[in-house]
Amino acid sequence: MEHRKLGTSGPDTSMIGLGCMGMSDLYGPADRAESIATIHAALDAGVTLLDTGDFYGMGHNELLIREALEGRDRDKALISVKFGALRGPAGDWIGYDSRPAAIKNFLTYTLRRLGVDHIDIYRPARLDPAVPIEETVGAIGDLIKAGYIRHVGLSEVGVETIRRAAAVHPIADLQIEYSLISRGIETAILPACRELGIGITAYGVLSRGLISGHWTKERPAAGRDFRLMSPRFQGENLDANLALVERLRAIADRIGAAVAQVAIAWVAAQGKDIVPLVGARRRDRLTEALGAAELTLSADDLTELDRALPPGAASGDRYTREQLAHIDSEKA
C-alpha cells in the first residue's frame, strides 16, 4: 500500500488508516471477534495507522486494540489516541478536560490499557474552552520529551487554534471530518494546515456510512447508534442525501468501482497530505474500503464528482446544533 507522511514533522503511514471507534461505541452492537479479525486483516493488508480514543467504550476500544496487537510487532502499527472527553456511567457526555495534570492521568491509563510504552500520536479530542491550547500542547510536548508520546495531533479545531498550537510545538496532523458531502475545511482550515506543514487524517470519509452505498431508509433496529440523532440521517434530509448517493452510484458504476471506494478515493485524491480513515467493523467492509487504494480517479472523474456532489450539497448539518456549538472548527 502507498505510504504518506503526516505533515513535515509527522510519521509515515499507510495511505488509508483504520478508525476503530465503531468496534466499541456509538454505532450499535459490534462483534468482538469480528472486530479483532478486522484489525488483523487491516494490518496484514498493509494498514499501519490505527485510530482510537480513550473514551470509545470507556476504555473498551483500547483494550480491544491491545488484544488485536498481541503477538504482533508493536512498531508495525501507528497508534493515534484522542483524549479529553468526559463520560458518565450511563455513557453520557459530561464535558472535556485538557489540563496538563489530566493529560498525564489520561495517558497513564491509556498506556496501561493498550499495553504499550508509548503512543505515536496523541491529541485532544476537542478544544477545551477552559484551557489555553498552548498549555495542552505544551503538556503533550513535555510527555514527548519524557518518551511517552512521539507526535502531537489536533482534532476538530479552527485556524486560530491551529496557529497557536503550532507556535508551541510541531503538529503532525489535524484529524477532522472531510468527505464528498463535508467539505468545510477547504475554505480556510486545509490551506492553513498546508501553510504550516500539518497533515490531515480525515474521518467521516463515508459520512458515517451515509454515502457508503449500503445505507437505506431503514434505521438500525438495536443498540445505541448516535446516527439516529444526526440531522443528515433524519426525515427529508435522509431522502435528499440518499438521492445524492444515487448520483455517486451512477459515477461509480461507470468507473467500475463500489460507491464506498469512489468516496474514499476522492478524499485521498485531494492531496498526498491527506490520509482517509475508514471505520470498517467487518472484514468484508474493510476489503471493499481498501480497494480504494487501488483506484485512481482521473481528472474527468473528479470533475464529474464535483458536479454531482458540489460543496454544500448535503441536507442537514454533520452534527446537531448543540454539538456544533462546542466544536472549535465550526467557529468563524
Describe this structure in words.
This protein has 332 residues and is α/β, with parallel strands linked by helices. It has one domain: NADP-dependent oxidoreductase domain (TIM Barrel, Alpha-Beta Barrel). The protein is built from 11 helices and 12 strands. The protein has helices spanning 32-44, 60-69, 100-114, 133-145, 159-166, 189-196, 235-255, 259-268, 283-290, 299-308, 321-324; strands spanning 3-5, 12-14, 17-19, 49-53, 78-83, 85-87, 93-96, 119-124, 149-155, 171-177, 199-203, 274-278. The chain has an 8-stranded parallel beta barrel with strand order 3-4-5-8-9-10-11-12, surrounded by 6 helices. It has a two-stranded antiparallel ribbon with strand order 1-2. Helix 3 crosses helix 4 (133-145), helix 5 (159-166) runs parallel beside helix 6 and helix 7 packs across helix 8. The chain is globular, with a radius of gyration of 19 Å. The termini are far apart.
Please give a handful of descriptors for the protein shown.
globular; two-stranded antiparallel ribbon; oxidoreductase; alpha/beta; 11 helices
